[in-house]
Specification:
With 179 residues, this protein is mostly helical. The protein has helices spanning 8-15, 23-27, 37-40, 44-47, 50-56, 58-61, 70-81, 95-98, 118-121, 126-134, 137-178. It contains 11 helices and no strands.
């Protein structure tokens, strides 16, 4: 995807502010119709905190690369707090449990391949990886918040299951005593 976005040098220039991201789109929005590859995979939204931008709303989505701040992150967290379930991709196999489905329902397995960074494996320069990590700190924080919400849901579901099991055991014991 680095080549598709103009190469590492162009991306670094965009991230460090020496040039605007995809200038032809910045000058002539008509040339970047919504849904086109050019609009979707170029500029600030694809390089800087895409999830925070998406959850913070349209105005935040179109801000420049360094335009987001903790206020936008707060708005994104509030939006995430309103969803029924924040499910990290690594947790697909526990989906039936967190939804309260019967134990015989099996979740979809998900296997993580490779290292933490596929960019490193793809030969993306370390300087660009560092710049992208810097410009996506809010998304990293948003992900940590999503994981926290997920674990809170798991705990609530575990307490519910434990309570149901205890009630079931009491009914079973009472029925044994009656015999």
């Amino acid at each position: 995807r680095v080549d598709m976005l103009g190469g590492a040098v162009a991306l670094m220039a965009c991230l460090n502010g020496t040039t605007s991201c995809v200038p032809e789109c910045d000058r002539r929005r008509a040339g970047c119709a919504r849904g086109s590859d050019r609009a979707e995979f170029s500029g600030a939204p694809s390089l800087s905190n895409a999830y925070t931008r998406a959850l913070a709303g349209p105005a935040a989505y179109m801000l420049p690369v360094s335009g987001l701040n903790n206020s936008h992150l707060g708005t994104a967290k509030q939006a995430l707090n309103r969803v029924d379930l924040a499910l990290p991709t690594w947790a697909f196999e526990v989906l039936p449990f967190v939804l309260g489905l019967p134990a015989h329902v099996v979740g979809v397995g998900h296997e993580v391949h490779g290292s933490e960074s596929s960019a490193e494996a793809a030969g993306v320069p370390a300087e660009l990886i560092a710049a992208l990590r810097h410009h996506n700190k809010l998304d990293a924080e948003l992900f940590r918040h999503a994981e926290l919400l997920f674990w809170q849901r798991v705990k609530r579901q575990a307490l519910k299951a434990q309570s149901e099991l205890a009630a079931s055991l009491q009914i079973g014991r009472a029925s044994c005593r009656e015999r």
